[in-house]
Design a protein that fits this description.
Shape: globular
Structural class: alpha/beta
CATH class: Alpha Beta
Largest sheet: 5 strands, parallel
Strand order of the largest sheet: 2-3-1-4-5
Helix content: 40-55%
CATH superfamily: P-loop containing nucleotide triphosphate hydrolases
Distance between the termini: 31 Å
Strand content: 15-25%
Number of domains: 1
Number of helices: 6
C-alpha cells in the first residue's frame, strides 16, 4: 500500500534522515500539497539540535501537537531525524496508540559529505557531532517496514 492508497485522514508521514538530507525542503511542500499538518521540533521554537536527542520535553511537545491533530481528524507530516531504531519504533507505537491509521516513512538517504555541505549553509547549523551520530545510526539500522511502518519510500538526495 502506498500513500496514495492510504486513508485520507489520520495518516502520519515520518521524515527520516540526517540533518541536511533535504527533509524539510521536500516535506513542507508535500504537507501543503496534501493538506496535511506539518510538525517539526525545529518549528516549535524549541530548536536545539545538539540537545534534541536527549531533551524529552521537545518530544513531549512535538507529540502532543501531533496527537491533537490526530484527535481532530487531520493527517500529519513529522519532519525530524528519527535516526535511532528505538526512537522510530517508539514513535510508531505511540502514533498508533493515539489514532494514526496509516504510517509512512520517507527515508532521505544522503551522503554525509552532501549533508554537511548543506548544513554549512544554514542560518543555524547543526553541530557536526549530531550529523555524524545520526548518519552512523542510519548506516547501522536503516528504516524498514518491519519496524511497524505501513509503507516506506526511499529518496536518494545527493545533489548539493
Amino acid at each position: 500500500m502506498h500513500m496514495d492508497d492510504a486513508p485520507k485522514k489520520k495518516t502520519v508521514v515520518l521524515g527520516i534522515g540526517i540533518p541536511g538530507a533535504g527533509k524539510t525542503s521536500y516535506l513542507k511542500p508535500l504537507a501543503e500539497k496534501l493538506e496535511y499538518k506539518y510538525v517539526s521540533p525545529d518549528d516549535a521554537d524549541i530548536f536545539n539540535a545538539a540537545k534534541q536527542a536527549n531533551d524529552f520535553s521537545i518530544w513531549d511537545k512535538t507529540f502532543k501537537k501531533i496527537y491533537s491533530y490526530l484527535r481532530q481528524g487531520y493527517s500529519v507530516i513529522l519532519d525530524t531525524q528519527l535516526a535511532k531504531l528505538e526512537w522510530r519504533r517508539q514513535s510508531i507505537n505511540l502514533l498508533r496508540e493515539n489514532g494514526a491509521n496509516f504510517i509512512q516513512g520517507i527515508y532521505f538517504k544522503t551522503s554525509l559529505e552532501v549533508a554537511k555541505e548543506r548544513n554549512s549553509r544554514r542560518t543555524k547549523p547543526v553541530p557536526e557531532i549530531v550529523i555524524n551520530a545520526a548518519w552512523q545510526e542510519l548506516q547501522n539500522n536503516p528504516p524498514k517496514t518491519e519496524e511497524g511502518l505501513d509503507d516506506l519510500k526511499i529518496i536518494i538526495n545527493n545533489e548539493t
